[in-house]
Amino acid sequence: MPAHGRPESGGALPPAAVALMLLLSAVWGLNMVAVKVTSAGIPPVLQAGLRSLVAAMVVALLGRLLGMPFGHWRRDGTLPMGLLAGAIFALEFIFLYVGIGLTTASRAVIFLYGAPFWVALGTHCLVPGDRLTRAKAVGLSVAFGGLLLAFADGLRRPAGPDALLGDLFCLVGGALWAATTVLVKTSSLRRAPAALVLQYQLVVSVPLLLLASPLLGEAWVLHPTPLVVSAFLYQAVGIAGASYLAWFWLVSRHSASRLAAFSVLTPVFGVLAGALLLGERLGPGFLLAVLLVAFGLWLVNRPQR
């Protein structure tokens, strides 16, 4: 049972949860554009650390304004797992940002969004009632096939000499993302309020990311143009603050594998955002890719018979 006695469901997601996941996927898709814009003025890992710092303040404020409980972390036994979740959260972004710098964006997306498969395997082994059924496996595969088709043009382009290492780092980043989700479902964190689960990750990741930034050779030289600041605030307030809070609220109540499957939509929305905001070209198979992703998600979320 999650915190406050609310029932947790391993079945098909209700329409409200599906609608919220669609909104989150669209918000996260725009984040890809925001990261690209922000990187012009703030180094990537430093950007992630500052984002966690601002987001931690935003979550604290939202919790106070909305009356969201943070629990009693000194007495509820969640601190050890909270510290572990924060460390994994920091490592996820270190691997991801370093990996993106070594490989192409298209390859990075493909390896990062293998995360739903990791979540499905983890919950199958560790979470009763959230098994990897044949319909889920087929649905995930179809949705991922749509993702491959959406990025087919980018995958055919030449990659740099360190692309394989970058691919590996992005794969690890996706696995760490999945590990955080599975940890929340299988540890004492499953009983904690969503605000506390997120705050653990934000607060713990701040010093780790800020320390990693210079160790990875980043120069702390900032160019805070209005566009850079706006894109950074979108990440910190909209993504790491509000949207991650909504994500962990959903994870505490519904099947993690079904929720994670919807994240495959995030890069699809990212492609649309790139086309609308940056003038990037949509590939000829993009519509078919969207249909494949939608069909795959329908299979994943189809009620069990």
UniProtKB/TrEMBL annotation:
Coiled coil: none annotated. It is a multi-pass membrane protein. Keywords: Membrane, Transmembrane, Transmembrane helix. It holds the Pfam family EamA. The chain crosses the membrane at residues 12-30, 50-67, 79-102, 108-127, 134-152, 164-184, 196-215, 227-247, 259-278, 284-300. GO terms for cellular component: membrane. Residues 18-151, 165-301 form the EamA domain. It is found in: Membrane. Its main location: membrane. Belongs to the EamA transporter family. This is DMT family transporter. The lineage of its organism: Bacteria, Pseudomonadati, Pseudomonadota, Alphaproteobacteria, Acetobacterales.
